[in-house]
Amino acid sequence: MATSSEVGATIATVGGEGPREACGLFGVWAPGEDVARLTFFGLFSLQHRGQESAGMAVSDGERILVYRELGLVSQVFEERTLATLQGDLCIGHTRYSTTGSTTWDNAQPSFKNNGGRGLALGHNGNLVNTAELAAEAGRRGPATTDSDLVATLLARHLDQGLEEAALRVLPTLSGAFSFVMMDERTVFGARDPHGIRPLAIGRLPSGWCLASETCALDVIGASYVREVEPGELVALDDRGIRSLRFAPSPRAALCLFEFVYLSRADSRLYGRSVHDTRREMGRRLAREAPADADLVIPIPDTGFSAAQGFAEESGIPYGEGLIKNRYIGRTFIEPTPALRQRGVKLKLNPLPDAIAGKRLVVVDDSIVRGTTTRQIVQLLRDAGATEVNLRIVSPPIRWPCFYGIDMSTRQELIAAGGPIDEVRRFVGADSLAYLSLDALVSSTWAPKDAFCRACFDGEYPVDVGHTEPSKFVLERL
Q1: Share of the chain above pLDDT 70, in %
Q2: pLDDT mean over 251-269
Q3: What is the pLDDT at residue 398?
Q4: What Å distances lie between residue 83 and 58, 75, 77, 108, CA to CA?
């Protein structure tokens, strides 16, 4: 069964223009463990991947109970709630929407049944054949996500079991997807044939788990086993771990933005520390685009590692010039227009004593729309910086993402059409330089063809056709 209450308050984004990732996934099969509590801490460590809603599905072997609400993990779950979620297997989800509005109906895990059997599903990614799948599915419920659509299609074949249903439905999906799924007795994980979105397998003393990032495995004391392979379906239950192939993999194409921005610095991808990779990106950027300055500062949080690398390579001292409110995320209370006009600094606040009279190198992960970067540059100037030299540890973002990052049209990308100097003038920096694509890829120690680089070079690993993506495609059908 699933909860049916809906939070009525509006959730507002506070601060930040950066790319937003679709979701964080966690799943665990561990008889005798408090699986809901393990899932809570797994989701808590994946909160950065989605702050619109959070949810869990848990089974005691006989029935599936789903609890989900709008808000942060710590807002949705409390001790009393976790105490009701008892069982041997559980999946969890944190959401940032790239298909469908921010409503309770679109929170995950999605839940379906066929009258006798049930399934729950969480999704990270974005499908590009959503309209075609919707036509096949026909009548649906109030949810308007591609994730719920997949759950609907799976439920049609539940009489054969979820494993067989997945092997039948997954090959019909096109786009980016990592799934955690469960029926009453088994947890499943799956990745699309290119492996665009990550999904790792972990080992517990009493079972197995799945997570979008390895940092979630570390938090619950699980040992890393391996990644779910592109085109692979894995099953976790009392028979151990089983691997099934639902589609061949043309090539791996992990989203390169996972290294740049999306993943936590304490996670590992392709066997490489994200922190070490970002530090190397900063070193290479210092070599490609040196600056004459007094201080290197990061834009929190993803700029820390890269700024340290830039400082090491350049010999310019490293320091902090901006303090981030770690608890901002999403909030149910918006500042009033009057407070906005008074310049309430909800997310970032400068340290004038550290930056006044200084020529700064400001290191950030990316520039998407440019509006927040412009505000930060002005913030630093108002605090007394004499120069603001922006250094970006990724190439210009020139192409939209169809695979689960909220950068959906070229019109919203400030670097899509014009020269870099136009971007510099818009954001108000004294100088602006980006890391080259070759240097970015080299920093990962993985080959160029191991990544989806579409937002940088327009080469999409999965055909997206000629239409712009629409977040509200199912709401318009």
Answers
A1: 88
A2: 96
A3: 95
A4: 12, 16, 10, 20
For residue 324, give every residue at least 6 positions away whose Cβ sits within 8 Å of its Cβ, in sequence order, or none. 300, 301, 347, 348
Whole-model pTM: value is 0.92
User: What DSSP state is assigned to residue 275?
Assistant: H
**How many angstroms separate the CA atoms of 438 and 447, rounded?**
10
The maximal CA–CA distance of the chain, rounded, in angstroms, is 70
Residue 215 annotated as catalytic: no
Percent of the chain surpassing pLDDT 90 = 78
Is 6 a residue whose pLDDT tops 60? no
Q: What's the pLDDT at 411?
A: 85
> Whole-angstrom Cα distance, residue 432 to residue 419?
11
- Residue given tokens 């691997």 in the structure block: 243
Token pair 């999906």: residue: 173
The b-or-e profile of 158-183 (16+ CB within 10 A means b, else e) is beeebbebbbebbeebbbbbbbbbbb
Domain 272-445: which CATH number of 3.40.50.2020, 3.40.640.10, 3.30.1030.10, 3.50.50.60: 3.40.50.2020
CATH code of the domain made up of 12-253: 3.60.20.10
Give CA–CA dist 371/20, Å, rounded.
Answer: 15
In the predicted model, what is the mean pLDDT of the chain?
90
